[in-house]
Design brief:
The complex is a heterodimer. Chain A is an alpha+beta fold. Chain A contains 7 helices and 14 strands. In chain A, the strands form 2 sheets. In chain A, strands 1, 4, 5, 6, 7, 8, 9 and 10 form an 8-stranded antiparallel beta sheet that branches. In chain A, β13 and β14 form a beta hairpin. In chain A, α2 packs across α3. Chain A is globular and about 55 Å long. Helices cover about 35% and strands about 25% of the residues of chain B. In chain B, a hairpin with a 7-residue loop joins β8 and β9. The two termini of chain B are about 35 Å apart. Classes of the chains: A alpha+beta, B alpha+beta. Chain B: Keywords: Cytoplasm, Nucleus, Proteasome.
Chain lengths: ~260, ~230
Amino acid sequence: MAAVSLVRCERGFARDAAPDWMRQELRTGTTIMAVEFDGGVVIGADSRTTTGAYIANRVTDKLTPIHERIFCCRSGSAADTQAISDAVTYQLGFHSIELDEPPLVQTAANLFREMCYRYREELMAGIIVAGWDKRRGGQVYTVPVGGMLTRQPVSVGGSGSSYIYGYVDSNYRAHMSKEECLQFTAQGGHGVCVRACVRMCACACVCVCVRALKCVLLCPALSLAMERDGSSGGVVRLAVISEHGVERRVVAGNQLPSFSAI
Amino acid sequence: MSSIGTGYDLSASTFSPDGRVFQVEYAMKAVENSSTAIGIRCKDGVVFGVEKLVLSKLYEEGSNKRIFNIDRHVGMAVAGLLADARSLSEVAREEASNFRSNYGHDIPLKHLADRVAMYVHAYTLYSAVRPFGCSFILGSYDDDDGPQLYMVDPSGISYMKEMTCRELVKEVAKIIYIVHDEVKDKTFELELSWVGEVTKGRHELVPKDIKEEAEKYAKESLEEEDDSDEDNM
């Protein structure tokens, strides 16, 4: 059998003898989301990585730390976004040491933008940068394919995001609290709290909040997208970034709210 | 008194037996012999004042500026060789511009001062080049960090007082007038600039009317002191 070409092919081309899935690029099909609240940000993502129709990884972590209190949500080509994230993590770490203070979220977003815009012909990456810094609190910046940069109070991305623009537009309100944001993104009342990593959790009251979280905004939004988009699915990964640190949660597939009557 | 270098002062790449680099010390002399530059930090901004000696009556007012703008929010007042200072101001501007294009926001003053100081230091390491014969004061103001003042090289005067920018402008003018030695130097032109809340974080030359008011205040204070001296005698 001929050696499989690793050059990125347009979907739909059927020139090679290799099976379809071997010619497809590894993509994070994805639904990603980030919301600003008073005091930080909540970010969420699904966990499906596909090569064509095959799910290469059903428990992917698309929420990547760039710095202590700055994360990015990755969508698009898995390889491209990983490479960009690694490069930005290095640059930001260096910059932070030079300045001798924690970096600004805006700086991280700018570094992503510089790379995504400069190499826009070679890359396929849609990234949401979110985090907390002392100067401007919680911030969400979106860097879609092509390399634009804009700050938004709430941002969705990835192939699954198309299905939830209406939901987000109708349900998002400005100045929500952390609990409301989580409710927006994730789950209602039955979320299993898995504190996979709680970094720099200096405040005891934060631990209590994690258990009490009811998740009204992010979970339903992500669940709705995962329901309709074939490239999104698996579990919902959430992270809350604030002055006190980062709390991470996982909501398993069977605990996600279901919206179909059937 | 300055000791004679005798052989150890020919290049910046030579130490003297007592551990000094004479070329750097001679460079500082260039600063000491120049006219005064002042930067003062107050609670809502920074004011710069420079005593600009007028070398010839043919010079137009406002020529040979010794206060420079480095990016919108940073000002730089210099003392020493003006040509060296101009080239360093271009270095500082490039640093600030590169920072902004890489990271998307204003360069923090401390970082800028460090970068320019590193550049100045590099010229003290090699025999092929000479050290810069100027020192300068960098100042800026922003809402988060407040007013900041940094000096590169210890020559030049810098101290902080608790007053507002507007009041400070008059004081700076007064200091320059006092410091100006009538006998030794000829006429001089006062250059004043400020950055602070009053200018919304932008470094600008002090407007003409405020500058004239400050100069008037300075001249009056000098006369008062002269009068009081006479009385005492």
